[in-house]
Amino acid sequence: MFTGLIEELGTIKKIQRHAKGLSLTIQAQTILEDMKLGDSIATHGVCLTVTHIGKHDFEVDVVSDTVNSTIFKAIKLQQKVHLERAMRSDGRFGGHFVSGHVDGVGKILSRTKDGLATRIHIEVPPPLKKGCLTKGSIAINGVSLTIQEVTSQGCVVSIIPTTSTWTTLLDEPLHGHVNIELDMLIKPSLQSSSKIDEDFLKKHGYIT
Q1: Which residues are CB-neighbours of 145 under 8 A, at least 6 positions away?
Q2: Pick from 17, 101, 99, 25: which is nearest to 58 by CA?
């Protein structure tokens, strides 16, 4: 389980492609401090298991199903990726519940300045759009964000200066692709016949 609060930007140092997927070597610093083999690390929003730990880097495997359903199919050397360790049970909880199981891939349609912040319009695959709710939560490349507006194509999120400093969201190219994970507290309701709207969210305590 993760919170969507990015701890560090890692760098892809090595990519090994094989029949069953990818093996990635990622340069990092902060998250190496207490890392153990088998730990779960959210990497651009994808939960991956640590298979090797070096002095300045670590390795993870990405199975073919994950490669094909995320932006890892186009991963590049020297690419910066968002890293977050699994949340601690004795720590303060921030962001929102993020599982690291990506629901789909979206596309950055536009970026516009809004005072100190930057609004990003993201195209969301049609099957996921019903999970986009104004003031609801969404993880974009593993970053916990609040949906400011729902559009016919997807949703708009707002990036404050602090978030832009700790993430690559303002560096992604226009029409570039991003990993999307819907709020896991809402997803079970999407499987039912219940109507999901702001009244539903308020009634069930998701928003105030």
Answers
A1: 4, 137, 138, 139, 157, 158, 159, 163
A2: 25
Residue-level pLDDT at 196? 57
Q: Which of 31, 57, 85 is the last residue of a domain?
A: 85
Q: Tell me how many domains the chain contains.
A: 2
111 vs 130, 157, 175, 198, CA distance in Å?
23, 10, 10, 26
Residue 90: pLDDT band (50, 70, 90) is confident
Same domain, 43 and 113: no
Please report whether residue 59 resides in a domain. yes
Residue that has been written with the tokens 């601690």 in this structure: 88
* pLDDT score at 205: 66
pLDDT in tens, 94-134: 889 899 999 999 999 999 999 999 999 999 999 999 999 99
Task: Evaluate the CA torsion angle 143, 97, 131, 49 in order and state its sign.
Answer: positive
Q: Are residues 113 and 197 in the same domain?
A: yes
112 and 189 within one domain? yes
Same structural domain, 158 and 113: yes
